[in-house]
Design goal:
single chain, Herpes Virus-1, 30s Ribosomal Protein S14, Chain N, Double Stranded RNA Binding Domain, 3 domains, three-stranded antiparallel beta sheet, flat, E3_ligase_FN3/SPRY
């Protein structure tokens, strides 16, 4: 058990603290998720590759990258001069190659060093397919070694094959049918993989099929991690879902309190109008 936990720590991305997804190998021999690397470069005002395009080996090539994907975040004014002096991009009056070519540095979160990615940035990195396969096999091993049993079978229990988020329980095939009879409300419950820890079913991004984690105030819509680094939301005001929820809840609470406080006044006015109508009819 301890050795498995130690192995799991080796398979965790130092940025998102979750198991690697499409890991890229940095020149310092450390690894980072493709989406995480894109976000880090975006935060530092550098070019980044579209994380929705699956990296191969190498991670991206000039022939497979669309020119519009080379997108830079809007740099702050105090950073603009530094970027222009260092040859960041092109601007009117400057010929490409007139200044030394820009080399993009990446702050490695593991060794705390700035590693040189060259001019192509993430496009020069290779996808660590070996590590990706190790992560996938580890996930399968964990699933096999930790068999989940049906919570409703009489002894001897059968292994669970389905889970239900609404019921917060795991079932074998027969028990799932028994507790979700045809023609009832429970028959509408969607089966999920069995688990011991049921989380509330989160909203999914219709475009990327990922769970939404942030809210774009500019577009007034929920966005996932992949949406955040897309060109569409550049310079938009994006906040975590929880922050947006709390702000909206406070606003609605104040509006509701105002409505309730004026309810008595409105009811009194309605009663007076009804009396006036009766008097007029008489």
């Amino acid at each position: 058990q301890t050795s498995m936990k130690n192995m799991e720590r080796e398979l965790v991305c130092p940025v998102c603290k979750e198991m690697y997804k499409q890991p890229l190998a940095l020149p310092c021999t450390h690894n980072v998720c493709h989406v995480c690397a894109s976000e880090v470069l975006l935060q530092h005002g550098h070019l980044y590759c579209d994380p929705t395009s699956e990296p191969t080996s190498p991670a991206a090539t000039p022939s497979t990258r669309s020119p519009r994907l080379g997108r830079r975040a809007v740099p702050k004014p105090d950073r603009l001069d530094r970027l222009l002096k260092s040859g960041f991009g092109t601007y009117p009056g400057r010929k490409r190659g007139a200044v030394h070519p820009q080399t993009i540095s990446f702050p490695c979160p593991a060794c705390q060093r700035d590693v040189d990615l060259g001019e192509r940035g993430l496009g020069s990195l290779f996808r660590n397919l070996t590590l990706e396969r190790v992560v996938e096999r580890y996930r399968q091993t964990i699933n096999i070694s930790a068999a989940i049993m049906c919570q409703f079978c009489k002894p001897p229990q059968l292994e669970a094959t389905k889970g239900c988020t609404e019921c917060k329980s795991s079932f074998c095939n027969e028990c799932f049918k028994l507790y979700h009879p045809w023609g009832t409300q429970k028959a509408q419950h969607e089966p999920t993989p069995p688990t011991l820890t049921f989380r509330p079913k989160g909203l999914m991004c219709p475009e990327h099929k990922e769970e939404v984690t942030h809210y774009c105030k500019t577009c007034q819509r929920l966005v996932c991690q992949l949406c955040r680094v897309r060109r569409t939301h550049t310079s938009h005001k994006i906040t975590p879902v929880l922050s947006a929820y709390q702000a909206l809840r406070e606003k609605l609470t104040k509006s509701l309190a105002y409505i309730l406080s004026s309810q008595d006044t409105v009811q009194t006015q309605i009663a007076e109008l009804e009396e006036t109508v009766k008097h007029t009819e008489v």
